[in-house]
Amino acid sequence: MNSVLTVPVGLGDRSYDVMIGDGALEAAAPRLPGIFPRQRAIIVTDRHIAPLHLERVTAVLAGAGIACDPIVMEPGEATKSFAGLEQLVDALLERNIERSEAVIALGGGVIGDLTGFAAAVTKRGVGFVQIPTTLLAQVDSSVGGKTGINTRQGKNFAGAFHQPRLVIADTAFITTLPERERRAGYAEIIKAALIGDATMFDRLDAAGANVLHGAPLARAIADAVAFKAHIVAQDELEHGRRALLNLGHTFAHAFEAEAPRDAIRHGEAVAAGIALAFRYSVARGECPASDADRVETHLRTIGLPWSAATLAHKDWDAGRLVARMRDDKKNQAGEITLILARGIGKAWIDPRIDAAHLVAFLETSLS
Ligand SMILES: NC(=O)c1ccc[n+]([C@@H]2O[C@H](COP(=O)([O-])OP(=O)(O)OC[C@H]3O[C@@H](n4cnc5c(N)ncnc54)[C@H](O)[C@@H]3O)[C@@H](O)[C@H]2O)c1
Ligand SMILES: O=C(O)C(=O)C[C@@H](O)[C@H](O)[C@H](O)COP(=O)(O)O
Ligand SMILES: [Zn+2]
Q1: How far, in Å, is the centroid of ligand 2 from the Cα of 137?
Q2: Given 48, 183, 191, 228, which residue is catalytic?
Q3: Binding site membership of 146 for ligand 1 (Cβ less than 6 Å)
Q4: Is 266 a catalytic residue?
Q5: What DSSP designation does 75 have?
Q6: What residues are paired with 297 via a beta bridge?
Q7: Which structural domains are found in the chain, ordered by start?
Q8: Is there an atom of ligand 1 within 6 Å of 176 CB?
Q9: Ligand 1 site-directed mutation target among 48, 54, 268, most atoms within 8 Å of CB
Q10: Would you say 32 and 67 are in contact if contact means Cβ atoms under 8 Å apart?
Q11: If you write DSSP's letter for every residue of 12-74 in order, what string do you get?
Q12: 151-194 pLDDT, tens digit each
């Protein structure tokens, strides 16, 4: 077993650890009997992940005296839906899950968000454990307790805050991840640096494309998780500061809602959204253009979109995108909230965005 790092998420009696590294699964084994009192674990995963990783997880749990009962969902955003929720809650109830039990989410953000939400509502709340298998899920979605599904109206429009009991971010899982998914996950790492850690950005930028693998990636995963854990511990329910973690997401969720399903990855939309947040900050005279240039150059080096025009889907309409942003969950008093930047590592929250000005900005930025 290689070295495994533990990052605590301090939330009083709902505190938990994020165990990170190659071999985190085996390192977590002694903790598992305390989480699965009926010596069984219902594991929710998807059809891509099951043949790759379910056998290893089942073997480690068996070694801890826990029998596995898998539920295999279809991969893709369509599963993160009311239909997916109904299918999963039904499957949990058919297995007579008790409140004393926990269910395992073995997968990316789709499986984690859906399983966490199903755990939050089934019998008014059963426990859950996150075993994230994508880079995005390891650095972001498995930590912090935001769970939910997409609705017709937009991304994550039905959900609950429900914290996991344990997060096992075993980096061995991501060795089977397609490169496109790896790059998409990296967008949430660079997001952390751009929000509040300029030194981290310098380190990632210096590594260039090498940051996607090996030791630079291991360090980046740990840094991103620690950054997120710190913010979540300060503002679990997003009354204030946690909204910073939404840098790029007001644009991203509008892109995701407007594009055909699964045409763009969440992380790709976030990358383009971050670049736009920096450009909009420059347009308002609040951020040095050289910082926005650095962000775009870094995203290009990684092979991520660095503008709306470099996303895989290109048919955007500024008015429709801003109409989507008018429904964003962060908004207050009918005004759009955006996360902007005064520079690299200096994100801030503006709750009073002029929608007409934003439409005009986007009209010049979409091509
Ligand atoms: N809750 C949060 O805080 C939070 C944070 C960020 C993103 N999200 C949500 O997460 C979702 C995106 O998650 P994602 O990027 O992980 O996508 P995903 O869950 O759709 O997984 C991407 C693809 O990779 C496959 N896959 C997963 N692990 C694999 C592995 N180890 N090897 C090979 N293939 C594997 C999946 O089957 C899927 O096809 C979005 O719905 C987004 O809104 C939530
Ligand atoms: O944990 C958070 O807080 C985040 O905002 C993390 C985001 O990367 C993630 O995409 C999250 O699901 C967005 O949440 P939402 O509240 O904007 O739907
Ligand atoms: Zn995100």
Answers
A1: 12
A2: 228
A3: yes
A4: yes
A5: P
A6: none
A7: 5-176 (3.40.50.1970), 179-365 (1.20.1090.10)
A8: yes
A9: 48
A10: no
A11: GGG-EEEEEETTHHHHHGGGHHHH-TTSEEEEEEETTTIIIIIHHHHHHHHHTT-EEEEEEEP
A12: 999 999 999 999 999 999 999 999 999 999 999 999 999 999 99
**250-274 residue pLDDT tens:** 999 999 999 999 999 999 999 999 9
Q: Active site residue: 94, 96, 124, 152, which one?
A: 124
Judged by DSSP in three states, 304 sits in: coil
Residue 2's pLDDT is 66
Specify the pTM: 0.98
Ligand 1 pocket check for 198: Cβ under 6 Å: no
Q: Using CB atoms within 10 A of its CB, is residue 248 exposed (0-12), middle (13-18) or buried (19+)?
A: buried
Return the number of other C-beta atoms located less than 10 Å from residue 278's C-beta. 28
CA-252 nearest atom, ligand 2: 10
Residue 1: pLDDT over 70: no
Which residue out of 77, 101, 238, 296 is catalytically annotated?
238
The yes-or-no answer on residue 314 being catalytic is: no
Report whether 46 contacts 110 (CB < 8 A): yes
| Span 298-340, pLDDT tens digits | 999 999 999 999 999 989 999 999 999 999 999 999 999 999 9
